[in-house]
Amino acid sequence: RSSWLLLAPLLTPPVPVITAPPCSLCPEGAHRFQWIRNLVPEFGISSSHIKVLSSPSEFYELLKVQIKAAKQRVVMASLYLGTGLHEQELVYCLEETLEKSLQAKGSPDLRVSILLDYTRGSRGRKNSRTMLIPLLQRFPKQVRVSLFHTPNLRGLLRLLIPERFNETIGLQHIKVYLFDDNVILSGANLSDLYFTNRQDRYVLLRDSPEIADFFTELVDAIGDVSLQLQQDDTVQMMEGMVHPYQGDKVAYCEIANRRVMEVINSARTRQEQLHAKTFHSSQPGSSHLSQQGSQASGDLKPEPDTWIYPLIQMKPFGIQIDEMVTETLLTEAERDARIYLTTGYFNLTQAYMDLILGTRAEYRILLASPEVNGFFGAKGVAGAIPAAYVYIERQFYSEVCYLQQQERVQLQEYSRAGWTFHAKGLWLYLAGSDLPCLTLIGSPNFGYRSVHRDLEAQVAIVTENKALQQQLHQEQEQLYLCSGVVSTSTFEQPNRYVKLWVKLVTPLIKNFF
């Protein structure tokens, strides 16, 4: 328990200052969300290119298939790579694909870039680094492994906080898996649990070169300000780059902000130019010529009915786009709209809680029951974390009851024997609609860590297409099917007993998990 005392210098959270974007909601359907493109690039695609996955095994098999089929690039960003047999098979797939590329005529085209968190990826003797070193040794010119180290873990704090606890200060939490022009967005890490019995969310965007380019550039930008894994298991920064914990913190964060915002702004400019070009070519008198030109070049694409908006949150670098968009979506949700929000770790920021309790939409919030919490049964202090989540949940439920909002704001607990729960995101149903027109999917948990400490990315998928809306609706229904509604009696069960010391400590440490 004394380990938590080492975090004392960081127990007083900074007060966030948020400037909400100007909101120009259009009155009808999916187009009401076009204000998001004032902040980030807007990628218009056909819904036929999107597939929603439902199970860990489906996710794992897709990863292997996509790795084996890759010709130009494999880009994978995750918290860590596990060390079991499933993870080893992924490494073998990468090795096999790189070997084929090496044997092809001419210089090999395939490039592999992997971004992980430094502290999580270095935990234990056998870790993410030792799993990937053979690839670096065999394919030094084709493979890059970047390990992000938060600039907030430095000096005496870095020396004193033990392994595992040091991960509470800040992490690389983005999960993007990209193969040529195919992109998988998820909240799942590259670990055996996420391939077998840890429920998450996953969406595949096929043949989406602009989106793949954006996430490649984003991972490259974070990689450039990260430690580079070497063949001898040492790490070093790129030449001329400020060190994340030995160099000047302000200078490092400014450089990181500049690199990431360059990616966002340049992609936004490109997409605006593309949008303008498409708009002008669709004017009367030009459509026939435009279509002829497209057909001649063989790249005639179906008309977009779905729009993808990448939402980035990197508070250590002063980037708060995801927070701004999420807060605006919650603020602007109309009466009789329904928001299904899910998180594996129910620990909402005060701003999100205030918006849920103070706005007009209906909320159905899905969270993990103690038995499916990822920390259930853990040793030491970590074993008390599910109880801390129960305490946070009970406080929120009490507030809902105090405000007499039980009909409008409903909590539901996911429970499934032999499984754990890690799904996060939301689905937005407009008033009068039985299908969602918007979903958020990616790495954020809507908690303090996601907003203030970690590097996060998700996408807003906005669609007019009924078939895709049906896919998203089925995904939501399938998750909520394994849940029960929370009531006062829920907290009277023996397994919901929270020890006094947990109640006393939770307010102090809730910003770290």
Q: How is the secondary structure organized here?
A:
Blueprint: E1 43-45, E2 50-53, H1 56-69, E3 73-77, H2 85-103, E4 111-117, H3 118-121, H4 128-138, E5 143-148, H5 155-160, E6 176-179, E7 182-186, H6 192-196, E8 198-199, E9 202-205, H7 209-224, E10 227-229, E11 235-236, H8 249-281, H9 287-297, E12 306-314, E13 319-320, H10 321-332, E14 338-343, H11 350-358, E15 362-368, H12 385-402, E16 409-414, E17 420-421, E18 425-429, E19 438-442, H13 448-453, E20 456-463, H14 466-480, E21 483-485, H15 500-509
Parallel strand pairs: 3-4, 4-5, 8-17, 14-15, 15-16
Antiparallel strand pairs: 1-12, 2-9, 3-6, 5-10, 6-7, 7-9, 10-11, 12-13, 12-20, 14-18, 16-21, 18-19, 19-20
Helix pairs in contact: 1-2, 7-8
Class derived from helix and strand content: alpha+beta
Per DSSP, what share of the residues sits in E-state strands of 2 or more residues? 15-25%
Q: What is the CATH topology assignment of the largest domain?
A: Endonuclease, Chain A
For the CA atoms, what is the radius of gyration?
23 Å
CATH architecture of the largest domain: 2-Layer Sandwich
Number of spatially distinct domains: 2
Q: Which homologous superfamily in CATH is the superfamily of the largest domain?
A: Endonuclease Chain A
Round the mean pLDDT to the nearest integer and report it.
90
Percent helix range:
25-40%
Oligomer: single chain
Q: What overall geometry do the principal axes of the alpha carbons give?
A: globular
Low-confidence stretches: 1-27, 286-297
Report the span from N to C terminus: 15 Å
CATH class term of the largest domain: Alpha Beta
The biggest sheet amounts to: 10 strands, mixed
Give me the count of strands. Answer: 21
Number of helices: 15
